């Protein structure tokens, strides 16, 4: 159980459910505020799509989420739900995004309830990744 700024976040894995690669099946939150970020895309401040393929786009999404969280007074540890979209049917590419996210300064966000999806396409031409984030304060 984590206590931060009047927030209670309890992350659990019920024993009757399968083991996870780092996230928790259940995230229970008591909070004064919820922060909902728009799906964060791999767009630079200029509005251009980040270079570097899937890895470069994932890095841009990480940076965008960190900026958005900070603007709301939140940190990665305050995140209570994520949904990760990868425009690929290749499981190894989905795993590579998960690994990169969990090796980044944003890693604490992915210990909460998380979903990782391979999708047919995303909103911008050439976009390969997007992450939806909810935080609690």
From TrEMBL:
Record Pfam families: Ribonuc_L-PSP
SUPFAM superfamilies from the UniProt entry: YjgF-like
Stored InterPro entries: RutC-like_sf, YjgF/YER057c/UK114
Highest rank taxon of the organism: Bacteria
Family: Belongs to the RutC family.
Protein name as catalogued: Enamine deaminase RidA (YjgF/YER057c/UK114 family)
